[in-house]
Design brief:
Blueprint (H helix, E strand, L loop, with lengths): L4 E2 H10 L21 H4 L1 H17 L6 E6 L5 H9 L2 H4 L2 E6 L13 E3 L8 E8 L8 E5 L5 E6 L5 E6 L2 H10 L24 E4 L1 H12 L1 E10 L14 E4 L2 E3 L8 E3 L4 H4 L5 E4 H7 L10 H5 L1 H18 L8 E7 L13
Parallel strand pairs: 2-3, 2-5, 3-4, 5-10
Antiparallel strand pairs: 1-7, 6-7, 6-9, 7-8, 10-15, 11-12, 11-13, 14-15
Helix pairs in contact: 3-4
Length: 350
């Protein structure tokens, strides 16, 4: 199949096709075989999520059944790490679920439930965590033509592109609200607005499907906290040429929707956010959960050499997770449901 279609449909097939999708292909290595997320960098990340889950548990008054839902779970690495890090008392009440469209991997902890879709609305009490999930929710791409009119970008499975019809309806409204000013005015010089038409060649991703996907995820909670962690951009600093890209075997590659590579784009988390949402950088969030990159005191090398080496390794991992120019610059979107789980990452939070 090599017909023209929008990037949203092309990405859906390429990533999640039942037989040959990048994520759903039987026997594939999973995301860890192609790129490193925070989960794969260090157990410190799963430990931080375990700490957050314990804070949610405290805020909810230690319910008899506490749920952790990992959306976009890969091969279950995050849930495995969280289960290892939790206190026994919390782990005994926990129901962990992985939401992932790929088949359940062999050897996964039998305590982990494996779901192809989100739980039913209002069925979850606890924490929903989505690490680098929204960036893989397929979106359409638009580009301004020679007259500055935003048109949908059409693509074939070999990656060839051409411009289609002008964007209209709800997608056009989303762009006006969330991607302007680059698509609302001349952006030929540092996105400066002049009141004229946009310059030709400006690209954007229509994030409306991600807003809807995140809203569905939040609705699974009866009470608790939903968190999305992803690479993101803000309305005031949208990139002029979009962020659509591919990854294969640990390298960034040209995005080709043939199932051979991951296809991803940065997330407009500000558009996803509900009225009660809080937004932090990953650096701020992990610092609030006890992860940092400070080196251990040199005196420890004399009194406990093995402990010093372990602490030095943890400091290196913590520094990578919180580096503001890397993973630490990711956005965290926290959406409390009910009135108990707000402010859990603020100083003095539960």
């Amino acid at each position: 199949m090599n017909e023209w279609c929008g990037w949203r449909d092309a990405t859906e097939r390429a990533l999640y096709g039942p037989d040959d999708g990048f994520y759903t292909r039987p026997g594939g290595p999973g995301p860890a075989g192609h790129f490193r997320t925070s989960v794969h960098v260090s157990p410190l990340y799963a430990g931080a999520v375990a700490t957050l889950l314990c804070r949610v548990d405290d805020a909810l008054g230690h319910p008899g059944e506490l749920t952790l839902v990992d959306v976009g779970a890969g091969r279950g690495e995050l849930l495995t790490g969280v289960l290892a890090a939790l206190p026994d008392e919390v782990g005994a009440r926990l129901r962990p679920y992985a939401v992932e469209r790929a088949a359940r991997p062999q050897g996964l902890d039998p305590r982990i439930g494996w779901l192809a879709e989100l739980p039913a609305p209002g069925s979850v009490t606890g924490l929903l965590f989505a690490n680098e999930w929204l960036d893989n929710v397929p979106v359409d791409v638009v580009e301004t033509d020679a007259d500055g009119v935003p048109r949908r970008v059409l693509v074939r499975t070999d990656g060839t592109e051409r411009l289609g019809e002008p964007v209209d309806g709800a997608d056009a409204e989303w762009l006006r609200r969330w991607w302007a000013p680059p698509l609302a005015a001349d952006a030929t010089e540092d996105t400066a607005t002049t009141g004229g038409a946009p310059a030709p060649g400006i690209r954007a991703e229509i994030g409306r499907p991600r807003d809807e996907a995140w809203a569905r995820a939040v609705r699974t909670l009866r009470t608790g906290l939903a968190v999305a962690a992803d690479y993101a951009h803000e309305r005031g600093g949208r990139p002029l040429f979009g962020t659509l890209t591919g990854f294969r075997d640990g390298r960034e590659v040209h995005p080709v929707p043939d199932g051979s590579c991951d296809i991803t784009a940065h997330v407009a988390l500000d558009a996803c956010a509900g009225p009660s949402a809080e937004r932090l950088t990953q650096r701020e969030a992990l610092h609030a959960l006890g992860v940092d990159g400070r080196r251990p005191p040199l005196a420890l090398a004399s009194s406990d050499p093995a402990g010093y080496v372990r602490a030095l390794s943890a400091a290196g991992s913590g520094a990578e997770l919180t580096d503001p120019a890397g993973l630490g610059g990711f956005g965290w979107l926290l959406e409390p449901v009910g009135d108990r789980c707000a402010g859990l990452l603020k100083p003095g939070g539960a």
